[in-house]
Design brief:
- By secondary structure, this protein is of the alpha/beta class.
- It folds into two domains: 128 residues, 3-Layer(aba) Sandwich (D-Maltodextrin-Binding Protein, domain 2), CATH 3.40.190.10; 110 residues, D-Maltodextrin-Binding Protein, domain 2, CATH 3.40.190.10.
- Helices cover 36% and strands 22% of the residues.
- It contains ten helices and twelve strands.
- Strands 1, 2, 3, 4, 7, 8, 9 and 12 form an eight-stranded mixed β-sheet that branches. A two-stranded parallel sheet has the order 5-6.
- β10 and β11 form a beta hairpin.
- The longest helix has 13 residues.
- The protein is globular.
- The chain starts with 27 loop residues before the first strand and ends in a 5-residue tail after the last strand.
- Keywords: Signal.
- This is Tungsten ABC transporter substrate-binding protein.
- InterPro entries: ABC-Tungstate_binding, PBP_domain.
Length: 272
């Protein structure tokens, strides 16, 4: 991790924090975001450039979408970067967030053991694959942490009209990296964003078994916390960061970020 970037990475159990000096130090911006933007290395790539361009420092709390939005609701951060459209719309509708902006997208993929005991690689849709996994009682590792990935997974189970209560289903309450490691160790299936997969896959005994289903589209937004609700937040700094991300400089950097020669995210702030 680059020493020039100031990070505060908090575990879920200690995600809520406050410090009275924040109101006085308007050079710092508090960002709550998904573990995927952190574990993929994207923020390590973007933030030094943002800090050079603007002079602002960004304190990052990587805690998953659900916890990130909750920190926004509580006024513990200045902006959020998440990937759960329904939860984000609710966050804005209830007056916690303002100025939601499309930022980028990637996709989810279903990964699992080379042997593929549920033969999901023959399926056309992820819903069919989930049914097959449950049907043979294969091991499935769920993040179980109210993240955007977990919300997507639960939405797919809802489409199957099945409850994920088969004995092979394990809800672990972990971020994407630990969940992938556990799936590899237990030779189970899991749903992951492509960015984190590309960051971890060379350490795992897993492979992509299903991809390309339109249901696996994974959009990210950046949303400011409402300053009318929390006047002491650093709204100005958060707005500078949001502007930078969606303008050509940030968008070009997002598109240029690669791992092992593969682009992880596609910038789409200017798409209608």
């Amino acid at each position: 991790m680059k020493a020039t970037v100031s990070y505060t990475i908090a575990a879920a159990s200690i995600a809520l924090f406050s410090y009275s000096a924040h109101a006085e130090d308007q050079s710092r911006v508090r960002l709550a975001t998904t573990t995927s933007t952190y574990h993929s290395g994207l923020l390590d790539y973007l933030l030094p450039e943002f800090e050079k361009d603007t002079g602002y420092k960004v304190d990052v709390i990587a805690a998953g979408t659900g916890k990130s939005l909750k920190m926004g609701e509580n006024g513990d951060v200045d902006l959020v970067m998440t990937h759960a459209p329904k939860a984000e719309a609710n966050f804005v509708e209830k007056g916690y967030g303002v100025l939601p902006r499309k930022l980028m997208y990637n996709d989810f993929v279903l990964v699992g053991p080379q042997a593929d005991p549920a033969t999901v690689s023959d399926d056309k849709t992820v819903a069919e694959a989930f049914k097959d996994i449950a049907g043979v009682n294969a091991t499935f590792i769920s993040r179980g942490d109210d993240s955007g990935t977990h919300k997507k997974e639960l939405g797919i189970w809802a489409q199957t009209k099945m409850e994920p209560n088969f004995t092979g289903y394990r809800s672990v309450g972990q971020g994407m990296g630990p969940t992938l490691n556990m799936a590899s160790e237990m030779q189970g299936y899991t749903l992951t964003d492509r960015g984190t997969w590309l960051a971890y896959n060379n350490k795992l005994d897993l492979k992509i078994l299903l991809q390309g289903d339109k249901n696996l589209f994974n959009p990210y937004q950046v949303i400011l916390v409402n300053p009318e609700r929390y006047p002491t937040i650093n709204y100005q700094g958060a707005k500078v960061f949001s502007d930078w991300l969606v303008n050509p400089r940030g968008q070009e950097l997002i598109n240029s970020f690669k791992l092992n020669g593969q682009q992880l995210f596609v910038a789409n702030a200017n798409e209608k």
